[in-house]
Design a protein that fits this description.
The chain is α+β, with helices and mostly antiparallel strands. The protein has nine helices and 20 strands.
Length: 341
């Protein structure tokens, strides 16, 4: 079943386009990672999916029925969706009181409230915090209680804005594990925003990328700030980090000299074992940090001072067989690097 369908949806503020999405379908019981630079429209899209912001135009369907952005129609829909902020706010009461509040509003009887709260706290591994004052919790603990509070309401969808951005590494791992378990055991659909490509690749069933309010092909998930300069009047290259740069096509990049943003197509990157890199080809060296199987392709994340995604055909991967931690070299084709207008 389709949880959401979007058709020609736009959102503008003061005449400035924030979102312009021609078509998007999100299936029920799946996890979607929403990547993109700051200002790409990720949070706006999340708020529209949570029925908190009305689009300027277009159509949004929820559970295969059109959404009417009228308060009487939206109220029951909002009970099916929970939006989780990057910095959740808890009431100044106990953890139990925080989870109980929404259940009381829904007129759930006391005995049932107790069972629901205990189950939700167990799922996020916070049962021992049941009677702890919420204001004494750490950032990571607050995030996990916010997840439990949302879980207690039995929604169909979690919409999470940067769920691990403000917590330490230990709590990041705990939150990722909780989200996976919620999706696996409760079949709750999850859409989360992030700047972390490793998190998106490891948690999501599918990754979506927004740039300037538009969905771009996941082939262009490598999105980086850069500095573009002309070299010797003939060559143009893009500096991605202190010692990392790639050549660009002069015809497409001359007008973009200076600070810019670049997409690098992961299907147009060649991977070599570090010891076999060609001498006559400009390569960047790094280590493999993640491998993911994607039907007839393999997604490889390489740390070259920043995280670069490479998509290999199955037969190319089989001939190379890189493993986690292996030293590799990557060569980026000129037409792989695209600078938006």
């Amino acid at each position: 079943m389709k949880m959401y369908s979007i058709h020609n949806l736009t959102k503008s503020y003061n005449g400035r386009s924030i979102l312009d999405i021609e078509h998007l379908e999100l299936e029920a019981a799946r996890i979607y990672g929403l990547l993109g630079p700051n200002g790409a429209g990720k949070t706006t899209l999340l708020n529209i999916l949570g029925f908190l912001v009305q689009p300027t135009s277009g159509r949004l369907d929820f559970l295969e029925k059109p959404v009417r952005f009228q308060e009487t129609h939206l109220q029951p829909l909002r009970k099916e969706v929970v939006v989780l902020d990057q910095y959740p706010v808890l009431f100044t009461t106990s953890v139990y009181g925080n989870l109980e509040f929404g259940l009381k509003l829904r007129k759930v009887d006391k005995a049932k409230r107790e069972r629901i709260i205990d189950e939700a706290l167990d799922l996020v591994d916070m049962a021992s915090f049941k009677h702890v004052p919420a204001h004494t919790l750490s950032g990571g603990e607050t995030q996990r209680i916010a997840l439990a509070r949302a879980l207690a309401l039995s929604p169909k969808v979690f919409l999470c804005d940067e769920p691990t951005a403000s917590v330490d590494v230990e709590n990041q791992a705990a939150i990722i594990a909780v989200l996976k378990q919620i999706n696996d055991t409760k079949k709750i659909s999850i859409v989360f925003t992030t700047h972390d490509r490793l998190l998106a690749a490891g948690l999501a069933h599918q990754t979506l990328v927004l740039n300037n309010g538009r969905l771009v092909s996941t082939s262009y998930e490598n999105i980086f700030p850069c500095r573009i300069e002309a070299v010797n009047g003939t060559e143009v290259r893009c500096h991605l980090a202190e010692n990392a740069w790639v050549f660009l096509s002069p015809n497409t990049a001359v007008s973009a000299v200076g600070k810019s943003r670049i997409f690098i197509d992961p299907e147009k990157i060649t991977l070599y074992p570090a010891e076999k890199k060609p001498e006559n080809v400009h390569c960047l060296e790094g280590k493999v940090v993640q491998l993911m199987d994607e039907a007839n392709r393999v997604r490889i994340v390489v740390n070259i001072g920043f995280l670069l995604t490479v998509l290999l055909k199955r037969e190319d991967y089989e001939s190379l067989r890189p493993g986690i931690g292996d030293a590799v070299a990557v060569a980026i084709a000129q037409d792989a690097a695209i600078v938006p207008n």
